[in-house]
Amino acid sequence: MSSTRKLGRFLRPYWKPALVAPLLMALEVAMDLMQPRLIQQTVDVGIAQLDLSVIVNTGLLMVGLALAGAFGGAGCTVFAVMAAQGFGADLRSGLFRKVQSLSFGNLDKLGTGQLVTRLTNDVTQVQEVVMIMLRIMVRAPLLLVGSMIMAVITSPRLALLLLVLSPMLLVVVLWVIKRAHPMFSQVQRQLDNLNTVMQENLAGVRVVKAFVRADYEKQRFGTTNDALVDQAIRAARLLAVTMPFMMLALNLGVVGVVWFGGVQVTYGGITVGQIIAFVNYLLRSLHSLMMVSMLLMRVSRAEASAERILEVLNSQPEVQNRPDAAGTFTPQGRVAFENVTFNYNSNTLDPVLEDVSFVAEPGQTVAILGATGSGKSSLIHLIPRFYDVTAGRVTIEGVDVRDVDKEALRRNVGVALQESILFSGTIRDNIRYGRPDATDEEVIAAARAAQAHEFISGFPGGYDTVLGQRGVNLSGGQKQRIAIARALITNPAVLILDDSTSSVDVETEARIQDALAGLMKGRTSFVIAQRISTVLNADKILVLDGGRVAAEGTHSELMASSPIYREIYESQLGNGVQAHG
After folding, report:
1. Cα separations (Å) of 151 from 146, 162, 217, 282?
2. Computed from CA positions of residues 89, 73, 33, 151, in that sequence, does the dihedral angle turn out positive or negative?
3. What are the beta bridge partners of residue 527?
4. 339 pLDDT more than 90
5. Where residue 50 sits, what CATH number does that domain have?
6. Mind giving me the DSSP string for 89-108?
7. By residue range, what is the domain housing residue 448?
């Protein structure tokens, strides 16, 4: 319960309905506990003495108490739903806000599939338990204690049966709960795996179809799904054992009351009405104990979910603002890497970048070349602090980027990432995503610079064309050009294009480069490209090899001094073009 209790702060804004619900449930329980005593009076006085007025008056009183109890139960449900739904909404919102604050490194560890499960299924599990606790978890203990007290008042001798049955049931419940908790934790982990497989498949469904791998994906999903089912069955099998055992105890209790009570009636030590009332209280108390046990198992499952939710809520962003971080930052664009070493997840044995040093002066275009896995994207991710360096430092205008507020820093760094992610909404909204107050003229200017205006204007809706999920109704090249326009509209001092023209043809790329040439004046630009034709006119070219800067210089300098660069050039453009370089 400790993890679930820690989430209680999300219930505080709804303390009024959370307080009223148990009070109304207490009213319903009190009305229920009165009924067996009234039945006893009806049998022992009304029926035994043939007194019709007692039967009628007691019957009317029972109806009145039942209506009052129904009012309490219905009111409890209404207020419990209000509190639980508000709790769930705030918890989901808190989780979502927390995810937005996490760094790339945190998201790498948690994984998208796990986060989806925690924002949906895990929150639902905890939310349902909150509603149960405000209703059944209040009703069952009150009814259990109240029924036991009333049973003792009705017949102290018969009440000895409760002292035998209750501890036996309690031991079984505690044993089951202890075994169930780790099982439910494993169920949630298997659900994580299933969500991950589904997300990967749905996101890459075109790749699946292109490579005719539908059968493999079905098998992969089936394996993961079967693992989830098997684990869920193991957990359910454990819970299934408890119900028959409890029903057995309940029926044995009834048999014992009728047996011993019948003997007492023959000797005049107890009345028939008392036996009927006692059986009612016995049924209520043992039934309440069964409810408590089942609810504790639900709480055990919710506890597993609560632990997973708290893991996210307690995560600290790996990239954080320093206490004295500068809140305002207006750089000219001088970027310097000073002996930078970087590795993911503190894996110091295998650095992605090692001892990288270079300077990009304001207004320069710096191109970064290298084989796949050489550290190109990792390098540019350090500039806007998507990750922090492991050693060394990255500076802008001589200021360590770690000494600048993250938002202030990123407002001055425009990024078109390697994967062009677009959001549901209009093209206009996607372009001005990073600057919602941009005018229509600025949107069009950015689109023209990215060579996107022409195809956007060709759509019936123009800039108000609604995009499908992840921009599914656009080609790869069109998505990349909109992503470039989105980066340009923020008017950044530093512009990063991470292989952002890989999906456009050479002619379109040339037009983009020509348009960007004017826009890049006065701002520092980093361009990662696979095509060497993209970087021929760069002010500086960095060649990365194995996480190190293998060569640095202009095109002509590298042609003369770098075998790696020369090999890349000749493999793409051939010797015949060299004279025109």
Report:
1. 8, 9, 60, 7
2. negative
3. 367, 497
4. yes
5. 1.20.1560.10
6. HHHHHHHHHHHHHS-HHHHH
7. 418-491
Token pair for residue 12?
């505080």
Select from 471, 491, 511 the last residue of a domain.
Answer: 491
The percentage of residues in the chain with a pLDDT greater than 90, rounded to a whole number, is 13
Q: Is the C-alpha dihedral spanning 125, 129, 131, 136 positive or negative?
A: positive
Identify the three-state secondary structure at position 527. Answer: strand
Q: Which 3-state string (H, E, C) describes 263-329?
A: HHHHCCCCCHHHHHHHHHHHHHHHHHHHHHHHHHHHHHHHHHHHHHHHHHHCCCCCCCCCCCCECCC
Q: Considering 434, 466, 491, which residue would you say is the last residue of a domain?
A: 491
pLDDT at residue 21 greater than cutoff 50: yes
Asked if 67 contacts 16 with a C-beta cutoff of 8 angstroms, the reply is: no
Residue whose structure tokens are 């078109």: 416
Q: What's 520's DSSP letter?
A: T
Tell me if 235 is assigned to some domain. yes
Q: Which amino acid is at 499?
A: D
How many Å apart are CA 383 and CA 179, to the nearest integer?
A: 49
Q: Name every residue whose Cβ is closer than 8 Å to that of residue 379 and which is 6 or more positions away in sequence.
A: 337, 342, 353, 356, 368, 544
Structure tokens at 280: 């009612």
Q: How far apart are CA 164 and CA 538, in angstroms?
A: 87
Residue 248 has pLDDT above 80, yes or no: no
Per-residue tokens: 423: 């959001």
CATH number for position 466 = 3.40.50.300
- Residue 361 phi/psi, 5-degree rounding, is -75, 155
Q: Which two tokens stand for residue 478?
A: 């069109």
- Amino acid making up residue 221: F
Q: Which amino acid is at 517?
A: A
Asked whether the predicted pLDDT for residue 346 surpasses 70, the reply is: no
CA distance 430 to 482: 8
Residues 397 and 442 both lie in one domain: no
Pairing status of strand 335-342 against strand 353-360 = antiparallel
Whether 426 and 390 map to the same domain: the answer is no
Sign of the four-CA dihedral 345, 350, 353, 355: positive
Residue type, 50: L
Q: Token match 């075998």: residue?
A: 563
Starting from the edge strand earliest in sequence, which strands make up the sheet with 540-545, in order?
413-416, 494-498, 524-528, 365-370, 540-545, 548-553
Are 242 and 295 contained in the same domain? yes
Pairing, β 540-545 against β 365-370: parallel
Reported pTM: 0.69
Handedness of CA 348, 349, 352, 354 (dihedral sign): positive
Beta-carbon contacts of 433 under 8 Å, excluding residues fewer than 6 positions away, are: 423, 486
- Tens digit of pLDDT for each residue in 251-263? 777 787 787 777 7
Distance CA 456, CA 465 (A): 8
Q: Which amino acid is at 566?
A: R
Does residue 509 contact residue 501 with C-beta atoms inside 8 Å? Answer: yes
User: Which pLDDT tens digit goes with each residue over 528-544?
Assistant: 877 777 777 788 999 88
User: In total, how many domains does the chain have?
Assistant: 3
SS3 148: helix
Backbone angles phi and psi of 368, in degrees to 5: -125, 120
pLDDT for 336: 93
Is the domain of 193 the same as that of 334? no
| Residue partners of 411: CB distance under 8 A and separation at least 6 | 329, 490, 492
